[in-house]
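re: ur question from yesterday

yeah so i grabbed the chain u mentioned. its 377 aa long if i counted rite. heres the sequnce exactly as i have it in my notes:
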Amino acid sequence: MSNWITVQNFTQRHKGQPVDLYLAVVPAAEIIRRGKVDVMTTANPEGYQRMLSATRTRQIAKYVLGGVGLLPTSLGINIRSGARFEPSEPDGRYGRLCFDESEPWYVYEGQHRTSGLQECMNRLAIGRNPAELGYELPVTFSIGFSQREEMDLFEVVNKEQRPVPTDLVASIIFNRVTEERGKPEPGKISLPTLRKTAGVAVSRYVSQRVPWAGHIQGVNETKDVVNRPLQASSFAATLLPLTRDRWVHTRFLTNPHDRDFEGLSKIVQLYWETLAELMPEAFADIAHYSVQRPIGVYAFHEILPEIMDACRMEDDWSPKSFKEKLGRLEEWVQSETWHRETGQDIVRGSGNRAAIAVVVERMRTLYYEPLTGLPEE
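ran it thru and got these structure tokens back, copy pasting raw so excuse formatting
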């Protein structure tokens, strides 16, 4: 038994040879019913696909069912045998892709989108809504490719195509969220998105001011690891301990009168101005000191919520207040500690998460004075 779908034929070249491909729009339910993913397992050692990620599947299902749901990029499917193209007129580009009902469609690009839509259908069925998901997907078909040729296509898609830079994505999210926050009745913004947007806002603010001006890599700027060791999105990510703080969330993240998070940005700016005053040599020579590199930025942003909490309790946000509290960190606010060649051993390496955790632990040991007045054992 054979079946067919309407397609448009086009030709590209692969390894110097012409390759016929077929573009179609197919109901998601049909792809789910016929689709197969050639996963490498102990039972199928010749497979080439990774195992499905349950987390990624749930994310896509939530994205689609949440009302956004746009999946505009094409899936890649190969029908290994039993398929042929029948043009609607001689030598035409439009026609029918006929295929054997019993032959699977091998999904080499888009397995998580397919599984996410399957999850949507399952949830709709449980909710006693129609199990048929009214959703269509663009598909680029190839026909007659062997598993090895199919694997080549998989490699082309996953190695040669480049993802959108994270800084560009963060910038797009920032623009969308701040626009939404500026509306008289803003829509719901997820907490992770809100935190990310606040981080980007702070990053943008400090990147235009001393001591960070010229030292954060902006969107589409040329990479310069010596003078701009952090991307804007990376700097924003280091602020996650701050944006997770309950008081920061209440006071700044959900403030409808400050859609650009300027209040929070000013605090972080003052914090870094104070650090620069305490360590002028380190800030004057970013190439040879680590304060403005990942290990320093992550560590100082880890301790910032605790310093802000003390400022809040004293109701004193002055530079003098910040300087007094940072002074408790002793050697960690001295330039020589952060020298990349002669400073403490822990700051000379790559600045991985383990090293950052050690630095933060040592900072906290100095920051908090021992408790007094507790009964002795």
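noticed a couple things. Strands lie at 2-14, 17-27, 35-36, 75-79, 83-87, 94-100, 105-109, 136-143, 216-217, 230-231. also The chain has two domains: 2-160, 166-367.
anyway ttyl
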